[in-house]
Amino acid sequence: MSLAIRWRLTIWIAAVLLLVLTAMFLSLRFSLDSVLSSDLDGELSRDLGQVSAQLALVGHPEQAELEEMRQRIVAMRAGLAALDPALGFLTAQKGMFSTLDLTPDQIRRLREDHAVYTAGARINIAGLVPSNLAAFAEALAAVR
């Protein structure tokens, strides 16, 4: 077999292998996305309850840890609602993030005056802990 034929055959095999690997990756990615995500306010957000249930079905060892995290996030949402009734809508939401109705000026004041960083009006509920819940609620009340 000539060198030119070997070279073409090698390129053809590499191209086919690349296509197969790409198809496998996309298939796995879409399968995981359908199991691990739900759409909340037009943004991809993980519903920890759904993920926890899926992991329980297969007996995954991290299922208990995930359920603990889900319960903690639910408690943070309930804690914020108890501290500020205007945040009561948070208890009906799911996922690690929530979007607040904040203006760009309010977001700037949260960051500059209260050292609270948000990605726009999106807050990280999973990043809250009981020790900073009251301070966070007070900061939100101060900028409204």
Structure commentary:
About 6% of the residues have low confidence. Strand 1 and strand 2 form a beta hairpin. The protein has a two-stranded antiparallel ribbon. With 144 residues, it is mainly α. The chain has five helices and four strands.
Please outline what is shown here:
With 144 residues, the protein is mostly helical. 62% of the residues lie in helices and 8% in strands.
The CATH architecture category of the largest domain equals: Alpha-Beta Complex
Annotated CATH topology of the largest domain: Aspartate Aminotransferase, domain 1
Alpha-carbon Rg, integer: 23 Å
Helical coverage, percent range: 55-70%
Total count of strands? 4
Largest sheet: 2 strands, antiparallel
Q: Give unreliable regions as ranges.
A: 37-45
How are the SSEs placed, and which strands pair?
Layout (H helix, E strand, L loop, with lengths): L2 H34 L1 E3 L2 E3 L2 H10 L5 H21 L13 E3 L4 H11 L7 E3 L5 H14 L1
Antiparallel strand pairs: 1-2, 3-4
